[in-house]
Design goal:
With 314 residues, the chain is an all-alpha fold. It has helices spanning 2-18, 30-44, 46-124, 135-138, 143-148, 163-177, 182-187, 196-207, 213-224, 230-239, 248-259, 268-277, 281-286, 295-313.
């Protein structure tokens, strides 16, 4: 029984070995079939499939890196150029700041130097008035114009200003216009006189070896100083009356000339009272109820009256 079963199994194995499996595509090449079997085995292996995917990804990344390298190279060149320009701009900015600071420092130093030079130039300039030098010393031709612009001349006549007032005005104008250079003034003093006083000046000039302003002032006061006392001068102011056709300004000037001869000047209110007392009758009547405590108030009131009179006359 056992022999019979073993015989059957051997026959079955023999039959199986004699069977040839024909693929569907009709390919009877066993090598190709084996290759397909290997590929299928490789494909079906997860580790090998992962390795293949990594290889493909690596190749793809290499291609992308190659393309990126070209772009990156261009970007790198551009970035380097940008950095170079930035450095150039920074260096230029620093240079400009340095130059600006240098110019500022140089400007300050130059300004100080210019100030020193200008001050030195101003001190040495002939147009600067100083105690030691005056512009007029270098430009004597300008002195006649300066003195002429003072608008003051002394003639010594009865209607002229008092000699003391004349000397006072000339002293003030010399201090203001000629920086107190009275030696220079004495060289052109003839321009200050007219009429009889000019003749007197040349007589003094001929008789004095060293002519100067102090000597001239002393001789002028000896000759033209009012020898009257203050009481006599005040009496003269009371006798001086305003004429019928004399304007208030002309009358006031005449009164002031007499009052300036006083050794002790009159107060403004006292002088205003004397002038008002000597006004012509019609003007004095107009101011009967007008308060005039000063010369300024009296002048305004009289000018208003004269303006109204001139307006109604025509």
């Amino acid at each position: 029984m056992q022999n019979r079963m073993m015989t059957r199994s051997r026959s079955r194995n023999a039959d199986n070995q004699n069977i040839i499996i024909v693929p569907q595509n009709g390919n009877l090449n066993p090598q190709q079939d084996n290759r397909q079997t290997i590929d299928s085995d490789v494909t079906e292996d997860p580790d090998q499939q992962s390795l293949a995917n990594q290889m493909r990804a690596f190749q793809k990344s290499m291609l992308e890196n190659q393309r990126t390298f070209q772009v990156t190279r261009t970007d790198t060149i551009t970035e380097k150029m940008t950095q170079m320009f930035s450095q150039l701009n920074r260096s230029t900015f620093v240079d400009n700041n340095t130059q600006h600071e240098f110019r500022n420092n140089s400007g300050q130093v130059g300004f100080q130097n210019n100030q020193g030079q200008n001050s030195q130039r101003v001190r040495n300039s002939p147009d600067v008035r100083s105690d030691r030098s005056d512009l007029s010393l270098d430009r004597p031709d300008r002195i006649p114009n300066v003195i002429f612009n003072w608008r003051i001349k002394f003639s010594g006549s009865a209607d002229d200003i008092a000699v003391e007032d004349f000397v006072y005005r000339v002293n003030c104008l010399t201090t203001q216009s000629l920086n107190g250079n009275f030696d220079l003034l004495s060289q052109f003093a003839n321009l200050l006189f007219a009429g009889p006083a000019l003749s007197f000046y040349w007589r003094v000039h001929r008789s004095v070896d060293d002519m100067n302003w102090l000597v001239l002032c002393r001789r002028l006061k000896e000759r033209y100083s009012d020898q009257r006392s203050d009481r006599e001068i005040k009496s003269a102011t009371r006798r001086r009356k305003q004429g019928s056709y004399e304007s208030f300004d002309d009358f006031l000037d005449a009164m002031l000339i007499i009052a300036n001869s006083l050794r002790e000047p009159m107060h403004d209110s006292e002088l205003a009272s004397e002038v008002r007392h000597n006004l012509k009758p019609d003007l004095k009547l107009e101011l009967l109820h007008v308060d005039t405590p000063s010369l300024e108030a009296l002048r305004k009131a009289c000018d208003r009256h004269e303006e109204f009179y001139r307006g109604t006359k025509f």
